[in-house]
Amino acid sequence: MKAMGGFITLEGLDGAGTTTQARMLQNVLEHMGINAVLSSEPTSGPVGSLIRQILAGRVNGRHATGMDAMFDRKALALLFAADRLDHCETFIKPLQKQGFIVISDRYLHSSLAYQTQDAEWDWVVTINKYAVQPDLVVFLDVAPEVAMSRIEGRGAGREIFENLGFQQHVMDAYHKALDLLADENKLIVNGEAPKEDVHSEILQRVLEQFNR
């Protein structure tokens, strides 16, 4: 295993199953005696907590005229970048130095996929320039229609990004971001397969990548 631990991120459309697979991976690594810790973005930190409220529609913008408005999407991109930097400095880096494998449910590639729908690609890259680069990005490939069906099956309120048309554009941006990664730094998995099969494929790659 690498001297400073490792860093794995799970990415995909809303409804792709990143949270489920991140938890399954962390649990099995821990049972194998491998130090692994789970995190997610937005984080539970001060900036991440604000982002979650914005995504849930509980925080909106307001014009000088007093009229309500949606929270500005470029400002939201900056909040994601700030939350990510705080995540890196207070969680990811310290645990990597202690030899942990850090698993994050969403990270930089979520910004490249989602925030570039409202802002220029190069600008989103620039505001995230200090983010730690993952050793492995796992992408759960799920059709937008399947992802939306899963979201609707939750029976809960939707977040601001959870609609089919937007998700289709996000998928295109995800593929652009993944194309920029070297093969050794990414794993694309059929996220529509049974969750146990998805987990097995991810686990096999992780054990190979980190020499376990």
Write up what this structure looks like.
- This protein has 212 residues and is of the alpha/beta class.
- The chain has one domain (6-209): P-loop containing nucleotide triphosphate hydrolases (Rossmann fold).
- Helix content is 50%, strand content 15%.
- The protein is built from eight helices and seven strands.
- A five-stranded parallel beta sheet has the order 2-5-1-6-7, with helices on both faces. The protein has a two-stranded antiparallel ribbon with strand order 3-4.
- Strand 3 (61-62) and strand 4 (68-69) form a beta hairpin.
- Helix 1 (18-31) crosses helix 8, helix 2 (46-55) packs across helix 3 and helix 4 (108-114) crosses helix 7.
- It is globular, with a radius of gyration of 17 Å.
- The N and C termini lie close together (7 Å).
- The mean pLDDT is 91.
In a few lines, what is going on in this structure?
The chain is α/β, with parallel strands linked by helices and 212 residues long.
Question: Which key phrases capture this entry?
Answer:
212 residues; alpha/beta; Rossmann fold; 5-stranded parallel sheet; 7 strands; 50% helix
